[in-house]
UniProtKB/TrEMBL annotation:
<dbReference type="GO" id="GO:0005788">
    <property type="term" value="C:endoplasmic reticulum lumen"/>
</dbReference>
<dbReference type="InterPro" id="IPR059068">
    <property type="entry name" value="TPR_P4H"/>
</dbReference>
<dbReference type="InterPro" id="IPR045054">
    <property type="entry name" value="P4HA-like"/>
</dbReference>
<dbReference type="GO" id="GO:0031418">
    <property type="term" value="F:L-ascorbic acid binding"/>
</dbReference>
<keyword id="KW-0847">Vitamin C</keyword>
<keyword id="KW-0256">Endoplasmic reticulum</keyword>
<comment type="subunit">
    <text>Heterotetramer of two alpha-3 chains and two beta chains (the beta chain is the multi-functional PDI).</text>
</comment>
<dbReference type="InterPro" id="IPR013547">
    <property type="entry name" value="P4H_N"/>
</dbReference>
<dbReference type="Pfam" id="PF23558">
    <property type="entry name" value="TPR_P4H"/>
</dbReference>
<keyword id="KW-0479">Metal-binding</keyword>
<dbReference type="GO" id="GO:0005506">
    <property type="term" value="F:iron ion binding"/>
</dbReference>
<comment type="similarity">
    <text>Belongs to the P4HA family.</text>
</comment>
<dbReference type="InterPro" id="IPR005123">
    <property type="entry name" value="Oxoglu/Fe-dep_dioxygenase_dom"/>
</dbReference>
<keyword id="KW-0325">Glycoprotein</keyword>
<keyword id="KW-0560">Oxidoreductase</keyword>
<protein>
    <recommendedName>
        <fullName>Prolyl 4-hydroxylase subunit alpha-3</fullName>
        <ecNumber>1.14.11.2</ecNumber>
    </recommendedName>
</protein>
<dbReference type="InterPro" id="IPR011990">
    <property type="entry name" value="TPR-like_helical_dom_sf"/>
</dbReference>
Amino acid sequence: RQTPRGPHVTLGLPCRFYEKVRALHQDASVDNPLLAFGLIKRLHSDWPNVVYSDEAAENAQAFQAGFKEVEQELPGAEDLDGAARALMRLQDVYALSVKGMANGIFQRAGTSCPPLYSPSRHVSLSADDCFHVGKVAYDTGDYYHSIAWLEEAASLFRLSYGSWNPEDRSSLEDALDHLAFSYFMAGNISHALSLSKEFLHYAGTPTRSCASAPGARWGWQERVPRSLIPALSPLSHPSWLCLSPQPTLEHLPHLSCSYETNDSPYLLLQPARKEVVQVRPYVALFHNFISDAEAETIKGLAGPWLQRSVVASGEKQQKAEYRISKSAWLKDTADPVVRALEQRIAAVTGLDLRPPYAEYLQVVNYGLGGHYEPHFDHATSRKSPLYRMKSGNRIATVMIYLSAVEAGGSTAFIYANISVPVVKNAALFWWNLRRNGDGDEDTLHAGCPVLAGDKWVANKWIHEHGQEFRRPCSTDPQD
């Protein structure tokens, strides 16, 4: 985005209005989750507030015409609320304090440990930003998060009370009103009453008219049954694994690194560099599995087709809050790079990837706070959509890291108690099924939220049919 140019846009504007417009033209980098949230909020609400303000009257036609040209491409309310939920997810999983996040510091609450992520450019959230995050939680009855974010919003509004910022959609009165009700729903009645008194003090001042005071929650003391008050709890996620460092081979001597040919002529001249991450369940990391150029090609092929990822739900597939990402599917005929990658996967795994023994390559992009809560790759019910391929269950997974991330994004195996960080251009492999055909419960895994950066992966799911002589059953029925 460039600064508006031309006399039809800038001449005659008051200096203050021009400064507000210029302030909206900030760095569009989305590596920092706070910058990403700020960008989405500016595009969704701050820009319309400026474009349609009274101060823009002289240039309203030019501004509004230009804005309407791109309005459909800008983030919507769903995008903004999703960005707010992403900040709450990062708060929970990485044990971050809300005050620290608002000040641009990504440090675990109550510790003196170094920050998990130190952005090159310092950025902080405004009182209105914090209010919006808290309001998203409030509207869904998530008072655990609404209290923390509305507290920070109220604190920041108190510091600037009396100053006029027309771009803000909220105020100190709004924050106090929602915060009082949140505390009431949390069971802290005395503090709720204290905040209500503070609200009445500010709402009765000349700086705010009676018509604009929220007041929608007055009478909640009598209207809300105590039995409806929900328990406060953070989001469920394997945060201990997302925060834990990867163990080294010195501490786990049974693990190993090796050059592997897997008896494949394809790997004779350039063996695969394999690191065994875990023996049970068997998890291996193949380093330098893909080149930078190949990774960029695959991302470019998938980019135009990315859509919100879905999950299996009974016999259907649908969107879910526990999987936040965008994905696309690529056939091996899409490009020679995809075909060569599939040949490489077949060589290192020793499995048959010919249709219908494997699914198309799935390319996934995890952006701001993108994550996937604990799940199995294999189907746990015969009614799962996975069986529509009529090639059995998913016997193995190959997940290729197409990009690096600055912080977060690890793959955490819950029951195995291991966490594999993002290693650019590496491929992570594990067996989903035991040799007897049963699902391996130790493969329960999660994609930790992306704290900073842009995570791209490519998944190849291989099915059990066609592998009978490549991974035969064991003589031990329990294996």
